[in-house]
UniProtKB/TrEMBL annotation:
It comes from Oryza brachyantha (malo sina). GO terms for cellular component: UDP-N-acetylglucosamine transferase complex. One of its GO terms (molecular function) is hexosyltransferase activity. This is Glycosyl transferase family 28 C-terminal domain-containing protein. GO terms for biological process: dolichol-linked oligosaccharide biosynthetic process. Residues 8-143 form the Glycosyl transferase family 28 C-terminal domain.
């Protein structure tokens, strides 16, 4: 193992079932893209999902581990180099507040998908990258973490404007 620095990718689906995301992360395309970007470990929080990822990567260089639930994802987010998350606002803002690079993967199986609008708006503001399960590998290959803008909590106005837009209220 030597003194090679560990670079962990943490994947979270929150309390939901989002097997499409876990399957995407478990695919050889995504694992290959992560390896090419220099990541060494993959920790998957799989929630209520039934799809179980494989612990051994094809060439054995990406260390994979998974679990179902944790009382807090904060410990995992703190020790990570990249977070791949479902589009739940709690997971998104917890990760952004910690200043970690984030790819939000939108669950297209959810009918009423306000989450995708939030993720796309934050992606447009360059706070995170937005993907679908089927585009995750390409997103990882193309992402430039240095292009992200830190999210500064405290300025509520843009978020309030966004929420008002979702609820159909006019702008001030």
């Amino acid at each position: 193992m030597g003194n090679r620095e560990r670079r962990t990718v943490f994947v979270t689906v929150g309390t939901t079932c989002f097997d499409a995301l876990v399957k995407a992360v478990d695919s050889s395309q995504v694992k290959e893209a992560l390896l090419q970007k220099g990541y060494t470990d993959l920790v998957i929080q799989m929630g209520r999902g039934t799809y179980v990822p494989s612990k051994v990567s094809r060439d054995g260089t990406l260390q994979v581990d998974y679990f179902t639930f944790s009382p807090s994802i904060a410990d995992y987010v703190r020790d990570t180099s990249l977070v791949i998350s479902h589009a739940g606002s709690g997971s998104i803002f917890e990760t952004l507040r910690r200043g970690e690079p984030l790819i939000v993967v939108v669950n297209e199986d959810l009918m009423d998908n306000h989450q995708s609008e939030l993720a796309e708006e934050l992606a447009a503001r360059k706070h995170l990258f937005c993907a679908r399960p089927q585009t995750l590998g390409d997103t990882i290959q193309r992402m430039g973490i240095d292009t992200l803008t830190p999210y500064v909590p405290g300025d509520a106005k843009p978020v309030v404007t966004l929420i008002n837009k979702f609820l159909g209220f006019p702008d001030d």
